[in-house]
Amino acid sequence: MTSAVLVTGGTGQVGQALARAAWPAGWQPHVVTRADLDLADPAAIAAMVASRPWAAVINAGAYTGVDKAESDQLTAWQVNALAPAALASACAEAGIALVQVSTDYVFAGNKEGAWDVDDPVAPLGVYGASKLGGELAVRTSGARYAIVRTAWVVSADGHNFVKTMLRLAAARDELSVVDDQIGSPTSADDLAAALITVAVRLAGDAAASGTYHFSNAGAVSWAGFAAEIFRQSALRGGPSAQVVPIATAQYPTPARRPTNSQLSHRAIGGTFGIAPRPWQIALADILDALIDPLDRIPA
Asked: Residues 204-219: what's their mean pLDDT?
């Protein structure tokens, strides 16, 4: 018998990673996009959850425009807070486990060292506040749940820092990159594997309910991340550029970013035995997918 898992956010990095991931035998993802399910429509969400006997739901759908959220608050709250509320309510009614993907932006970013799951939350902007609203709705819904916070998600798909750096380096010899924000890059594929482990366990074990963090291991600044991207890209014959470290104040944005986005893996390791691999190794896999080996052969 197949256990079906509803996955939202099918066009996003995590949704695409969940669609192509290797699931355990007997488990099958049903990945939906905005065209299939409007996350701003609570009635449509309830109908989708009630449409078949899901074993679990993974909500990877989100409004991720951090800067745009500052002026588009209604949409951000609809997708990031009200949609998880509707999903959690429907899951609670049906007795279905819900895995909610959240973010480091729920923290103020002013701590030294990695953030633990029970550290005080204090989002700096609309995006983080709306994602925190989704967390609170899930926790108070009565559903079996796991909230998995992540940060700095990158992959060979969609729009992300790795692809932006490679695109810019193809046109410029020098790039200015912020050096006073620290975090842990996260491979969407590695995150997807962790979410699958969590969902499968949670489907049969309510004791696994709780809040967890997942990112790849190790910490780096955006400038350091860019430098490693270019170092590895150059080894593959891809684009590279000189990185000029700058302060956040030199690159103003509508939304404030956390200065420290490091996430502790103690909780997810203790409950699920998940030990993330170093971000540099995960980056290598992404660059292997992005840089065609045929392009590396000299003319």
From this structure: 95
159, 221, 156, 220: which is closest to 190 by C-alpha?
156
Please tell me the distance from the alpha carbon of residue 245 to that of residue 221, in angstroms, as a whole number.
9
The number of residues in the chain equals 299
Residue 127: active-site member: yes
What's the rounded Cα separation, in Å, for the pair 58 and 91?
Answer: 11
Res 293: pLDDT: 56
Q: What percent of the chain has pLDDT over 90?
A: 95
**Would you tell me how many other CB atoms lie within 10 Å of the CB of residue 84?**
32
pLDDT of 132-160, one tens digit each? 999 999 999 999 999 999 999 999 999 99
Single out the catalytic residue among 127, 145, 212, 251. 127
pLDDT of residue 189: 98
- Output the CA angle 277-271-9, nearest 5 degrees: 65
Phi and psi of 7, rounded to 5°? Answer: -120, 120
Report DSSP state, residue 89. H
The tokens for 274 are 């998940």
Burial class (CB in 10 A: 0-12, 13-18, 19+), 139: middle
Residues 271-285 have a mean pLDDT of: 98
For residues 114 and 218, the answer to whether their CB atoms sit within 8 Å is no
Which residue, 225, 227, 259, is CA-closest to 153?
Answer: 225
- The pLDDT-based confidence of 292 (bands split at 50, 70, 90) is confident
